[in-house]
Amino acid sequence: MSNHESPISINKGKDTLAKVIVSQKHDLLAVPEGTILASRVDRLASFVLDVIVITTVLVIITNGKIFYAWNMSMWISYDFHYSLMMTFVIFTAHWLYWRLSGVYLSRSIGQKLFGLAIVADDGSEMTSEMWDKRVLNKLLYLIPLIGWYKGIYDLARISQRHTHQSNIDLKVNSIVVKAFSLPPFNRKHIK
Fold it and tell me: Which of 48, 80, 99, 169 has the fewest Cβ atoms within 10 angstroms?
């Protein structure tokens, strides 16, 4: 038996034994103790709510002309520039909404209603550059068919990862959490 490692090891760190085992296998994030990660249902519901709010505001502001973006007969006519312009308005409005709400509130209205917040994967506040990357990747969800496929794929990945991170979260090094579960120091920037 002198050539074999002992099957029993003593935990000398501050973390619990379970956390040490999981971190060795899965590269556990340095999320503050007690933080609850957001479920895919909460994330999907908050996204849908945000899109409904923004689209409703755009319908009112454009007097219904925003629907040109989804009118296929307009896209193949000589007046396709109306559809193109409304598509630009949709993407710009969503970008501004998610970017500004992220930078100033650390979450959107939909995420606030569901008690969610977006933080860096160590629990700290996200930087402006992180928000830029996150929002640009999130805009892809708005593209019909391609975005829907990407969204369904990301929802599946969220439930398969122990960190509940989507592919966007992995690119940006962020996590979506229940805001109340963060320690006070880590949620002071969340409004």
Answer: 48
- Looking at per-residue pLDDT, the higher value among 133 and 28 belongs to 133
Q: For residue 145, which of 94, 43, 70 has the smallest C-alpha distance?
A: 70
Distance, in Å, from the CA atom of 35 to the CA atom of 123, rounded to the nearest integer, reads 9
Whole-angstrom Cα distance, residue 174 to residue 169? 5
Instruction: Please tell me the distance from the alpha carbon of residue 79 to that of residue 84, in angstroms, as a whole number.
Output: 9
Length of the chain: 191
Domains of the chain: which residue ranges?
Answer: 53-187
Distance CA 75, CA 41 (A): 34
Task: Region of 106 please: left (phi>0), alpha (psi -120 to 50) or beta.
Answer: left
* CA–CA gap between residue 17 and residue 156 (Å, rounded): 29
The pLDDT value given to residue 107: 84
Q: pLDDT averaged over the chain?
A: 80
How many CB atoms are closer than 10 A to CB 128?
9
Distance CA 55, CA 110 (A): 13
CA atoms of 38 and 155, how far apart (whole Å): 12
| Predicted TM-score (pTM) of this structure | 0.76
